[in-house]
Write a structure and sequence with these properties.
The chain is an alpha+beta fold. The chain has helices spanning 9-20, 22-37, 40-44, 135-147, 152-158, 171-200, 213-228, 300-311, 323-349; strands at 47-50, 61-65, 69-77, 83-91, 94-101, 120-121, 125-131, 159-165, 233-235, 238-240, 244-247, 254-257, 261-273, 276-287, 292-298, 318-319. The strands form three sheets. The protein has an eight-stranded mixed β-sheet. It has a four-stranded antiparallel β-sheet with strand order 9-10-11-12, sandwiched between helices. A hairpin with a 4-residue loop joins strand 14 (276-287) and strand 15. Helix 1 (9-20) packs antiparallel against helix 6 (171-200), helix 2 packs antiparallel against helix 6 and helix 4 (135-147) crosses helix 5. The longest helix is centred in the middle third of the chain and has 30 residues, at 171-200.
């Protein structure tokens, strides 16, 4: 029981990586399911159908070659302002309807009114989606039945019960959705692979954004040694040791050498917390080389306690945010860079 209660950075990182596998896994499953549910294959390669009466309710997207069809006298517009015309075809005691783009059935002739369409068409090929009767179709049927001195029920009783609609054929929308799905799958796979790699080798986890992987590995080991010494100040999931700021929050892991830090301050961010507005704070660490590391999602009291604890260390770290302190930090960093440049020039001359 000697190690009971021991804080192990690598174990914490492994737990984070396990949790980070959940969301990408869910996204991958949902997106793959959508690939099977949405008929992208049928859209990109519509079923070739000869004759409108050969279209089946089970068909999704078709490229249909019609026989003779007659104009109903009714048109509709889609949301983009494109106009379509309703045509019908009779075969025995059955009637089939199609919604065809006006530009495919435009009538030619100088004496014809603008926007006129052909009264009948023959051997026309167009791409469409097979849909069930919708509101515009039902409205058309109602008016068309009156023109025929018939009833809606009578006309519906002889119809095929489906509409071959070019107005509902939106290949670009589906292609856009397909691209989005593929990108989401790739992004989720990349995140899942990264999380698995970091679970297998926790040293790959980015506990520090301005150090290399080799330096971060050494950093983890040194920080672990200081935690094992039990000489630290703890504020929730934050541990301030003699030489390190170690944050083992449930959503991440941050390790920052205090010797690198020249300025630390908090910045508030408005968030939503179970129906009520609240402020969360991000602790900003500015290093002597001008690098920035941000540790997010801290409460006001927690952030203040952390900053006060850092101020109490033996390191000369500026705390709190103000324009004066910001200018002072800039001057220190610029002065340090000037000294480094002069030192390099002197060595070059030697």
């Amino acid at each position: 029981m000697e190690n009971e209660g021991r804080i192990v950075i690598l174990d914490h990182i492994k737990n984070i990586c396990k949790r980070r596998c959940i969301l990408p896994g869910i996204v991958i499953i949902i997106m793959i399911a959508l690939l099977f549910i949405v008929p992208f294959g049928s859209l990109l390669n519509p079923k070739d159908v000869k004759g409108i009466f050969n279209v089946k309710p089970s068909d999704s997207f078709v490229e249909v070659s019609t026989g003779k069809m007659n104009y109903t006298g009714y048109d509709v517009k889609n949301g983009m302002g494109t106009e379509f015309s309703y045509y019908y075809s009779l075969k025995g005691d059955k009637c089939a309807f199609a919604l065809i783009p006006k530009n495919l059935v435009k009538a030619s002739g100088k004496s014809l009114p603008e926007g006129s369409v052909k009264e009948s068409i023959n051997n026309l090929t167009f791409k469409a989606k097979v849909i069930k009767p919708n509101a515009p179709y039902k409205k058309m049927v109602s008016m068309f039945a009156k023109d025929l001195n018939w009833t809606d029920e009578g006309l519906n009783s002889i119809s095929t019960g489906l509409v071959v609609s070019s107005a509902n054929y939106h290949p670009y929308r589906y292609i856009f959705c397909l691209v989005v799905i593929i990108l989401l799958i790739l992004a989720a796979v990349a995140r899942l692979v990264a999380s698995i790699k970091r679970f297998r080798d926790p040293y790959l986890f980015p506990v520090n954004t301005y150090l290399s992987n080799d330096e971060s590995e050494e950093l983890i080991d040194e920080a672990q040694e200081e935690l094992d010494s039990e000489n630290y100040l703890q504020i929730n999931a934050t541990y301030i040791t003699e030489n390190y700021y170690i944050d083992l929050d449930t959503s991440g892991a941050f390790i920052i050498p205090l010797k690198d830090v020249i300025w630390v301050f908090r910045l508030g961010r408005r968030g939503v917390d179970i129906g009520k507005h609240s402020l969360t704070y991000t602790i900003n660490f500015i290093t002597r080389d001008g690098e920035i590391m941000k540790v997010p999602r801290k409460s006001s009291d927690e952030a203040m306690a952390i900053i006060k604890s850092i101020k109490a260390t033996e390191y000369d770290i500026i705390t709190g945010h103000s324009d004066e302190k910001r200018q002072r930090v800039i001057e220190i960093i610029q002065g340090q860079n000037t000294k480094e440049t002069e030192s390099t020039e002197e060595k070059t001359e030697e």
